């Protein structure tokens, strides 16, 4: 065998090995399949809370190995309180054929579910998913939706307790609620039943628009020894700056359902940790992207509640916050 023949044989051997190895090398460098997530959020895009929602959700996804631009994309729709817009955005998202949808609130969840029963839905901040028809039970959702409650009904009586602690003189409280919400009726029923044990009487302020808030709170302020409780509802969340402004103007001790009211100047809140809830929702979505079904994932109640107090607002209202209440607070704004 000549030197040239040997070199030729070695060259062909090396070339054959490269041909065999090449497909594997290509497969090793193929980009990951990008999965699509839809998100229908009952907030305006310029609401400061929207940034919190996006950040917490994205962080939760990353904790489970899902990264924007690498293996997922998220299509957000910001629907606020306009029912027609919510329905239109729900149709838009379903038309994009996402693998799963995150829905913020019961209204957004129902809008998606009306468009499809096959698309997996993970909801957050839902008050009464059974009453809203989203699931058949909390332990066994049974359909295409599952997710996380905004609050357990029984915990809403905590708002009465806190109102009495921070403002012992209050004997009558108005409850700001959305009358179209199934959860609003349930929360008010519990508050009404528990009020006598705190030496209080409660009445509703039904809100459908900003004018209802202004009229209801102004009328309440004409009384004496009065306070206000804001329940979990999308209208209250959207109009929270107006509610806080009126409550502080009329010096009404007010208990709110979430921390973001207190950051905006409200007095005291007790409610679920929204950041934690969105991170948990990201975990459910990660499981669904790996093949699990919403029907097998139980609806979860909040695992963490936050007590937040704004001392600046308390001082403005002429209230002395009991040291025992301050000691229990998860956050105090000074």
Topology:
Layout: H1 3-28, E1 35-41, H2 48-63, E2 72-78, H3 83-95, E3 100-104, H4 106-115, E4 121-126, E5 145-149, H5 157-166, E6 172-177, H6 182-194, E7 201-206, H7 210-220, E8 226-230, H8 234-238, H9 240-249, E9 254-256, H10 259-263, E10 268-272, H11 274-289, E11 305-310, H12 311-316, H13 323-328, E12 331-333
Parallel strand pairs: 1-2, 1-3, 3-4, 4-5, 6-7, 6-8, 8-9, 9-10, 11-12
Antiparallel strand pairs: 10-11
Write up this protein.
By secondary structure, this protein is of the alpha/beta class. The radius of gyration is 26 Å and the shape is elongated. It has a seven-stranded mixed β-sheet, with helices on both faces. 44% of the residues lie in helices and 19% in strands. It has helices at 3-28, 48-63, 83-95, 106-115, 157-166, 182-194, 210-220, 234-238, 240-249, 259-263, 274-289, 311-316, 323-328; strands spanning 35-41, 72-78, 100-104, 121-126, 145-149, 172-177, 201-206, 226-230, 254-256, 268-272, 305-310, 331-333. The protein folds into two domains: 35-151 and 273-304, 3-Layer(aba) Sandwich (Rossmann fold); 153-271 and 306-333, Response regulator (Rossmann fold, 3-Layer(aba) Sandwich), CATH 3.40.50.2300. The protein has 13 helices and twelve strands.
